[in-house]
Amino acid sequence: MGYHWNWGIFLEPIPGGDETYLDWLISGLGWTVAVSLTAWVLGLVVGVAMGALRTVNNRWVVALATGYVELFRNIPLLVQLFLWFFVVPELLPKGLSLWVKQDLPAKEFVTASICLGLFTAARIAEQVRAGIQSQAKGQRMAAQALGFSGFQTYRFVLLPVALRLVMPPLTSEFMNVIKNSSVAFAIGVIELTFVARQMQEESEQGIETYLAVTTLYFICAYLANRLMKVIERRTQIPGTVGGGR
Amino acid sequence: MIDINGVSKWYGEFQVLTDCATRVEKGEVVVVCGPSGSGKSTLIKCVNGLEAFQKGRIEVDGISVGDPATNLPKLRARVGMVFQHFELFPHMSVLDNLTIAPVKVLGRSREQAVTKAKALLDRVGLAGHAAKFPGQLSGGQQQRVAIARALAMDPICMLFDEPTSALDPEMISEVLDVMVLLAKEGMTMVVVTHEMGFAKNVAHRVIFMDHGRIVEDAPKEDFFGRPHSERAQQFLAKILSH
Amino acid sequence: MFGGLDFSVVPASLPFIADGLMFSVNLTVVAMIGGIVIGTLLAMARLSDFPMLRAPATFYVDAMRSIPLLMVILWFFLVIPLITGKPIGAEKSALITFTAFQAAFYGEIMRAGIQGVSRGQVWAGQALGMNYWRVMGHVVLPQAFRNMLPVLFTQTVILFQDTSLVYAIGAKDLLKAADIAGKNYNRPVEMYLFVAAIYFAICLFLSWLVRRLQRRIAILR
C-alpha cells in the first residue's frame, strides 16, 4: 500500500507554531459546533415562522413564504454560501458594504451561520407546514370559536402540536445541519473539514486525520440525536404515541 | 395426494396449529371451515410451503414439504393456489399474468402459453379480456383470472384460501360456478371457505377447525346431517341461519 | 443595488460554463443510474434473511448517512490512489464517490418501496413456482420502482445540487467553472449570480416535473 502510519501525529506540533495537531482538531470541533448551533437556532426561528405563514388564509403571504422556500431549496448550499460571502456585500448600499467587507468581526463565521441558518429554515418550514396541515381542520375552528386571534391560534393550538408531530424530521434536520456545516471551509471558517484538509496536506497522515475528523462528526451527530430524543420525551403529550393526535 | 401428519406451528410463543392430521385423495374435494383465527388459512399455506411449520410432516404427491432438501419452487409449480385478495400482478395485463409463470418457470414457449391462456380465459368466461389490466376488472373477474392463472400451470391439485370472502355478494356465484365446474372435472381441491352451499353441492368431505385443531373431519353427509362435536354444531347453526 | 454590475462577461464565458455544466449533469446521471442499481442490491441485502448480508449493508448505509458528504469526497480522493497505487483525477474520483454515496440513499428509497409491496404479491409469485430472484425481478421490483419514482427523482434533484461539493477536490464542475471564469474576467459577482440562476432554473424545472409525475400517478391509482 505504500502508506506510512503514524498515530502519534496528533501530539506533534504544527510546523511553524507551537500548537499540536490535536489542539487544531479541538478548535476545529469548536467552530463546527458554533456554526451548527447558531444556524440551528436561526433556522428554527425563521423556519417555524415561514412554515406557519405558508398555512394562513392570505394568498399573498402564502405566495411570499412559498417563494422564500423555493428560492432556498433550489440552489445548492455551497453556491448560496458563495453568494452570501462574495455577492451580497457588493449589493449592499455603499456604507454597509464597506463595513461588512472590512469591519465585521468574524465575518466568515457570521456569513456561514446566516447562510446555513436560512437554508435550514426553508427545510424546517416545509416540515412545520406538513405538521400544521396534518391536524384536523376542526382544531383551527375550535380556537377561532373561542375568540383567539390568528396569531393566538398558531401560538397556543396549532404550533405546539405541529412541533411535537415533526420531532423525528426535526431531529434529522439537526443532524443535517452538523453535516452541512462542513461547507463553511470554503470561505475560510476553520471548522473540522477545513482542519481535515490542511492537516492532511501538511502532515501527510491523511488516514489518521480523516478517521479522527469522521469520529468527531459521528460524536456530534450522536449527541445531537440524544439531545433531541430527550426534548422529545420531555415534551410528549400524555396519552399519545407520536406526541400529536 | 396430500398427506398431513401431526402438524403443529408456533408464532413465537403462540401456537396457531396443534397436531393437525388428514389426507386428501386424488379427485377429492375437501372444504375446510371454522371461525376466524382457527388456523385454516395457515394450514392451507403450509401445504405448499408458503408458511413453515415446526412439527409434523406434510407430503404432496409423495414429496415432503417440510424437508429442507425439497425444491420448493418446483413443487409449488405443480400445486395451484388462489388467494382471498386475488393477488393478480397489477403491473401486468391479464394475458401476461397468465403467461409469465408458464414461460419463466415451466419453460414453455410464448405461443404455447398464449394459446393455453386464451383457452383458459374462455373457460372461466372472460374471453376477450386478455389485454386488460387487473385495475380495470371487477373483483369477481379478477378472481376468475386468478383461477385461470393457477390452472395455466397444469397443477395436480388446487388450494383455495377463502376465494370469495373479499367479493361483493353479486359476484360470489360467478366464481363459485367456475369452482364447481373444476370439481366436476375431477380436480383435487382443498377449499377454505364459509360458503356451505358450495360444500353441500360438490364437496366430498368437510373439515372443521377451531383454535388451531382439526375438530371434525367427516364425509359431507355426516357433517351436515349429524355433526359429532358441539363446536361444529354451534358453528353450523350460526352460519346456516343466513 | 445592482449598479456597477457588468453582465457582459457572461456570453464570453459561456463555452467554459457549458463544459462545467456538462460535467455536473454527467456526474448526476452516472451517480443516479449506478446509485439506483447498487442501492437496490443494498436494499435486498438489508431485507434478506442472511445476517452476513444484512449487517454490512446496514452498516454501509448508516455510515454514508452519518458522515458529511464533503468528508466522503475527501476520503475517496485520498484512499483510491492508495489502493490502486496510481494517482486519480478529481473528476474520476467524483464519479466513484457519488455513485457509492448515492447508493445508500437510493437504497433506502428502494427498501421502502420493496417493503410497500404487499406480502400477498410475494405469495402469489411463490405459489406459481417462482424462486426468490424471479419473484423479485418480475413481481416486487417493478412495483417497488414504479411506486417510488417520484421520491427517486426528488433524490436526483438533491444529488444534482450536491455535485457542487466536488469543489473541495478541484473537479471542474459548474461551480468551479464560475469560480475560474470569475477570476479570469475579474467579475466573480456576476459569474456566481449567473451560475446560481442556472442551478435554480434546472432544479425548479426538475421539481416541477416531479410534481407533475406525482399527480399522474395519483390519478392512475
Question: Summed up, what is this model?
Answer:
The complex is a heterotrimer of chains A (245), B (242) and C (221). Chain B is built from 9 helices and 10 strands. With 242 residues, chain B is an alpha/beta fold.
Give the tags.
heterotrimer, B: 242 residues, alpha/beta, six-stranded mixed β-sheet, four-stranded antiparallel β-sheet, 10 strands, C: 221 residues, mainly alpha, MetI-like fold, 0% strand, flat
In one word, what is the shape of chain B? globular
In DSSP terms (H or I, runs of 4 or more residues), the helix count of chain B works out at: 9
The CATH class of the domain at 32-189 in chain A is identified as Mainly Alpha
CA-atom Rg of chain A in angstroms: 22 Å
Instruction: For the largest sheet of chain B, list the strands in their spatial order.
Output: 6-7-8-3-9-10
The termini of chain A sit apart by 58 Å
CATH overall fold name of the domain at 32-189 in chain A: MetI-like fold
What percentage of amino acids of chain A are in beta strands? under 5%
Number of helices of chain A: 10
Strand content of chain B: 25-35%
Largest sheet of chain A: none
Largest interface: A-C, 42 and 36 residues
User: Could you give me the name of the CATH homologous superfamily of the domain at 32-189 in chain A?
Assistant: MetI-like
Radius of gyration of chain B: 18 Å
